[in-house]
Specification:
- The protein is built from five helices and no strands.
- The protein is mainly alpha-helical.
- The longest helix has about 50 residues.
Length: about 160
């Protein structure tokens, strides 16, 4: 990579000042900075793309290792065949034990049973201002305010 130490950088700066001139040096530095930024962006993008390719290659290798390990484990421990469930067992219901249908109960109204109906809650009306007082307040002219007296300063109070 490019490596500049202080004396080399100082020589480049003096040559740039003499060749470009002090008037156009800020424009040249701005132009150079934009190009260096673009170059860094391209390098960063290249590096991230390369890192993604390496990561994908490592994941593919790990998947191959996991598949080989899984095959080895399955070969050492074959799956066990479980017995098929019996057609009928003691705890299961048979077709002869079908649920029995019963008659639906009849529901009587509360009056026939002798139960009093539930009380209904009554809302109280909200208190509001009396209409006369509100109208009187709206029609009354506003009282003019008296200006506040300014507080006396501490020097005048001391005298």
């Amino acid at each position: 990579m490019l490596d500049f130490n202080a004396p080399e950088f100082l020589v480049v700066a003096i040559v740039a000042l003499v060749v470009i001139g002090p008037k156009d040096l800020p424009k040249a530095m701005h132009f150079l900075g934009k190009w260096v930024g673009k170059a860094r962006g391209v390098a960063r993008q290249f590096r991230s793309g390369f890192d993604n390719m390496v990561r994908e290659a490592e994941l593919a290798e790990m998947e191959k290792q996991w598949a080989a390990e899984n095959a080895r484990i399955m070969a050492e421990h074959p799956p066990v065949q479980l017995p098929a469930p019996e057609a009928q067992s003691d705890h299961m219901a048979t077709s002869e034990d079908a649920p029995v249908m019963v008659e639906q109960p009849t529901i009587l109204p509360e009056a026939e049973i002798g139960v009093a109906p539930a009380p209904v809650a009554v809302e109280k009306p909200k208190r509001t201002r009396a209409p006369k007082a509100a109208a009187a307040a709206a029609e009354a002219p506003a009282k003019p305010r008296r200006p506040r007296k300014k507080a006396e300063s501490s020097t005048e109070a001391a005298e």
